[in-house]
Design a protein that fits this description.
The chain is α/β, with parallel strands linked by helices and 296 residues long. 35% of the residues lie in helices and 25% in strands.
Length: 296
């Protein structure tokens, strides 16, 4: 069984479905409201667990009702909560999400996620040392992201850095990652480049190998001095929330099969995830992915 360790955020998603997005100062009627477990870290952990990996999560929740529910949800998914801290004087992270026309708008309040520390990452060293892949994103403090990159590199474990939300990072940090997994906009920000620059040239300039996602078009990855395109899969889109997290999780789970196969399965898993509502609600199991790939 593949072992995956995720270092990242844990949120309660507050989701509103509407016919369209409200404009500034405008009030409109929504069609449905629900609360679902989310956060990029937790999403990637859940997706990896459903795809058959043994998963541990390093993160933090608040000492509140959301925190208790989120902690219990991770356990139900079979994810080890050993390194999920409960912060006594802080609420849990939230994401307010509006879904309209198959697209989404999101506002994240980090709360307990802002309390993830390098020391907490170091305390998980024994767990990270056993990982076949380590996933980290940027909804936690950057010093914890750096600590994950450095520790994973020191342990000789492949670290996949999903640079979202994007911001420029030191080249030295990026060189510690086995793979960077941005979309086109995130890659430009990460490298401090023009967001309208050709993404293929940016991929070749990056200080670490890039697996770049472009929604329904699929993904591109670097092979020597060239880029390779893995086409996306056509599906009826219901909700794109969590598609990128599903992609990253699948990439980590299947990385041992080689990059081309891992990217293909990651594109397929992401495509499946957008056919259902909710970030974690749409994430497929390994059996579902296998059946779907057999038909496509």
């Amino acid at each position: 069984m593949t072992r995956v360790v995720v270092v990242g955020s844990i949120n309660m998603d507050l989701v509103t479905l509407a016919r369209r997005f409200a404009g500034p100062g405008e009030t409109i009627l929504g069609e449905r409201f629900l609360t679902v477990h989310g956060g990029k870290g937790a999403n990637q952990a859940v997706a990896a667990a459903r795809l058959g990996a043994e998963v541990a999560l390093v993160g933090a929740v608040g000492d509140d009702a959301f925190g208790s529910e989120l902690h219990a949800g991770l356990a139900r998914e079979g994810i080890s909560p050993e390194h999920v801290a409960r912060i006594a004087d802080c609420g849990s992270g939230t994401a307010s999400i509006t879904v309209a026309g198959g697209e989404n708008q999101i506002i994240v309040v980090p709360a307990a996620n802002a309390r993830v520390t390098p020391a907490q990452v170091e305390r998980a060293q024994a767990t990270l040392a056993r990982a076949d892949a380590i996933l980290v994103q940027m909804e936690i403090p950057l010093d914890a992201v750096e600590a994950t990159l450095r520790l994973g590199h020191r342990l000789g474990r492949p670290v996949i850095l999903n640079p979202a939300p994007a911001q420029p990072l030191p080249v030295e940090w990026l060189q510690l990652a086995r793979y960077l997994t941005p979309n086109q906009h995130e890659l430009a920000i990460l490298l401090g480049a023009d967001t309208h620059a050709d993404f293929r040239s940016l991929m070749l300039r990056a200080p670490a190998p890039v697996v770049l996602t472009r929604g329904g078009e699929g993904a591109w990855y670097r092979d020597g001095d060239d880029t390779v395109h893995q086409p996306g899969f056509k599906v009826e889109v219901v909700d794109t929330t969590g598609a990128g997290d599903t992609f990253n999780a699948a990439l980590a789970v299947f990385l041992h099969e080689g990059l081309p196969d891992a990217v293909r399965k990651a594109c397929a898993a992401a495509a499946l995830s957008v056919t259902r509502l909710g970030a974690q609600g749409g994430m497929p199991t390994c059996a579902e992915l296998d059946r779907w790939l057999a038909q496509h």
